[in-house]
Amino acid sequence: MEQWEMEKPMTLLWLAFTNVNGLTINGSGTINGRGSAWWPQPCLHKVAKALTFYRCNRLVLKGLRHINSQRNHITLTNCKGATISNLHISAPATSPNTDGIDIGGSSNVQIRNSFISTGDDCIAVSSGSSHINITGISCGPGHGISIGALGVHGENDTVEEVHVRNCTFKGTMTGVRIKTWQGGVGYARKISFDKIKFIRVDSPIIIDQYYCPSGENCRNETSAIKISDVSYKSIVGTSITDKVINLSCDQNVGCSNIQLDHVYIKSMVPGKKAYSYCFNAHGKYTHTRPVADCLKP
Ligand SMILES: *[C@@H]1O[C@H](CO)[C@@H](O)[C@H](O)[C@H]1NC(C)=O
Ligand SMILES: *[C@@H]1O[C@H](CO)[C@@H](O)[C@H](O)[C@H]1NC(C)=O
Ligand SMILES: *[C@@H]1O[C@H](CO)[C@@H](O)[C@H](O)[C@H]1NC(C)=O
Ligand SMILES: *[C@@H]1O[C@H](CO)[C@@H](O)[C@H](O)[C@H]1NC(C)=O
Ligand SMILES: *[C@@H]1O[C@H](CO)[C@@H](O)[C@H](O)[C@H]1NC(C)=O
Ligand SMILES: *[C@@H]1O[C@H](CO)[C@@H](O)[C@H](O)[C@H]1NC(C)=O
């Protein structure tokens, strides 16, 4: 949720609905962004988002196909109450920034039973979002389901009550990820991942409090977004690497109450055992392989 978007919601958007209450879009058509002409564009901020809902309350979006968006396929900003279901979203794995669904500043959002295969995040939940339920999503290829990146430029970002359930990740770069920049304030808390299946995922479970995309000059700061009350439960699958659980929490603030229960992830690297890595992560694990004995009490 960038500043320009808040102030000028009509710029750089292709199809946009703003301040609409009770809108239902229920159909079987296709929204084709014909993005391939835009993807080579070097200035990403000049690329339009395909379908945007800004300050829309009680939205229902159902049944459409969304293909090859210029940038994000679907964006929800400052919306209250939305049910998104039975969508089919696809763009090539190599297309830049073609997120499936981005949610920012929104609450009471339900996303279910959809197929998302794109070049970036399947679903990204950003600052100001709460009570977001994501269930029955088939994700991949793409970058998985992400919370963040939060706390850029020291911002106060908050996200809470995000529940991801019954989702499958196939060939994604990350599976379920929480990412924050160094130097923010605020929190990401009360987050759960339940009944998840990973198939050939690169980094299945990751908390990254050192988020720094290539080309950025990042350094460690003293403040951080506080991550707490995160549970990973009933998770199975495979990874193409051996580092299947990576909980890299902030060096000063740390993460608290991280819980892993019935998490079984295998490595597909021949002859290698899967392992867990933690840094300043506090919590506990039960019935988990690889064991997460790197967690501190
Ligand atoms: C969507 O359309 C289908 C087919 O016309 C209909 O059965 C269903 O009730 C509609 N759903 C919503 C939420 O309007
Ligand atoms: C999310 O799921 C919880 C538990 O099933 C439920 O209580 C809550 O109403 C759901 N929220 C939304 C926005 O769907
Ligand atoms: C789980 O998700 C799949 C779609 O990936 C859906 O068909 C199925 O009904 C969901 N099951 C439950 C129990 O929600
Ligand atoms: C950050 O924002 C939250 C929610 O709006 C607020 O409760 C909190 O006081 C803010 N923290 C700081 C340090 O400004
Ligand atoms: C874990 O993630 C952090 C942050 O992205 C990265 O710097 C680190 O190399 C990863 N650790 C392992 C063991 O993969
Ligand atoms: C930031 O802190 C982490 C954890 O102490 C450390 O591994 C990393 O090297 C530091 N990065 C920089 C740029 O100082």
UniProtKB/TrEMBL annotation:
Compartments where located: Secreted, Cell wall
The primary site where this protein sits is secreted
Q: Which domain of life is it from?
A: Eukaryota
Q: Which SUPFAM superfamilies match?
A: Pectin lyase-like
Instruction: Specify whether Secreted is a keyword of the entry.
Output: yes
The record's comment on protein family reads: Belongs to the glycosyl hydrolase 28 family.
An example molecular function term from Gene Ontology annotations = polygalacturonase activity
Its protein name is Glycoside hydrolase, family 28
Q: Give the GO biological process terms.
A: carbohydrate metabolic process; cell wall organization
PANTHER family named in the record: PTHR31375
Its lineage opens with: Eukaryota, Viridiplantae, Streptophyta, Embryophyta, Tracheophyta
Residues annotated as signal peptide: 1-22
Query: What keywords are assigned to this protein?
Result: Cell wall, Cell wall biogenesis/degradation, Glycosidase, Hydrolase, Secreted, Signal
Q: InterPro entries, per this entry?
A: Glyco_hydro_28, PbH1, Pectin_lyas_fold, Pectin_lyase_fold/virulence
Q: Name one Pfam family in it.
A: Glyco_hydro_28
